């Protein structure tokens, strides 16, 4: 699929896309059901490379019960590391360096004046998209672009397995710059070798002080309430 470059989208359109994508990449709950009509309206108004995949995914959501969606979400994102929604995993695996990378996300949120809850890692794709949509486009785009290779590996893997969430990743990548040469090499390496490994007997993620999560903010008028993803 040919994706649109980020610069082709005006800021308001890109923010709306990121907001919808964030909700659809969070754990499916009742808020998703309540906001289906609003999400569908927003998706339909987006440029086709960004909005059409979201519309397809929303069509899938309407045919499944909340229980089925939640079970599929867990089976997809919690049981397969190749679909990890945690961006730093692809670049650093379960190594010491990942703790530093997580801290950079946390510091970016703090610099924007946002308080994080303690329930989720700060590099969860849903959280990063929500952050970027909420008036932090420049920093959010930088964080997403820095992990462009991981996003592409995730997108390809979901598409190859026929996961409905592949459509959401198609939409996300359509808001980002096209893959550069070095990123294409990184994608090939990740597919062939996987993320870095470090057998050091440490906990798989970062120290507790580095492990915050979703951006918690009150809902804005006219926009769906973005609850913290699980």
Largest beta sheet, briefly?
Answer: none
Strand % is under 5%
Tell me the span between the first and last alpha carbons. Answer: 30 Å
Structural class: mainly alpha
Number of strands: 0
Structure explained in plain terms:
The longest helix is centred in the middle third of the chain and has 16 residues, at 96-111. The chain is globular and about 40 Å long. The model is unreliable at 1-7 and 199-230 (pLDDT under 50). The chain has helices at 11-24, 30-34, 36-45, 48-62, 66-78, 87-92, 96-111, 125-133, 137-146, 148-160, 166-173, 181-193. With 230 residues, it is mainly α.
Strand and helix layout:
Elements: H1 11-24, H2 30-34, H3 36-45, H4 48-62, H5 66-78, H6 87-92, H7 96-111, H8 125-133, H9 137-146, H10 148-160, H11 166-173, H12 181-193
């Amino acid at each position: 699929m040919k994706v649109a470059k980020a610069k082709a989208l005006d800021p308001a359109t890109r923010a709306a896309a990121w907001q919808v994508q964030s909700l659809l990449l969070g754990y499916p709950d009742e808020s998703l059901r309540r906001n289906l009509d609003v999400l569908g309206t927003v998706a339909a108004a987006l440029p086709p490379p960004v909005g059409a995949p979201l519309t397809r995914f929303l069509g899938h959501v309407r045919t499944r019960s909340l229980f089925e969606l939640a079970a599929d979400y867990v089976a997809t994102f919690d049981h397969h590391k190749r679909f990890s929604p945690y961006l730093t995993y692809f670049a650093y695996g379960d190594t010491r360096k990942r703790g530093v990378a997580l801290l950079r996300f946390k510091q970016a949120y703090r610099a924007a004046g946002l308080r994080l809850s303690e329930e989720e890692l700060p590099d969860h794709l849903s959280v990063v998209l929500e952050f970027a949509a909420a008036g932090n486009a420049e920093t959010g785009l930088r964080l997403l672009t820095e992990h462009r290779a991981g996003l592409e590996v995730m997108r390809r893997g979901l598409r190859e397995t026929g996961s409905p969430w592949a459509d959401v990743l198609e939409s996300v990548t359509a808001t980002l710059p096209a893959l550069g040469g070095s990123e294409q090499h990184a994608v090939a390496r990740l597919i062939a070798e996987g993320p870095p490994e470090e057998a050091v007997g440490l906990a798989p993620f970062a120290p507790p002080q580095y492990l915050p999560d979703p951006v918690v903010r009150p809902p804005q008028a006219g926009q769906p309430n973005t609850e913290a993803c699980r």
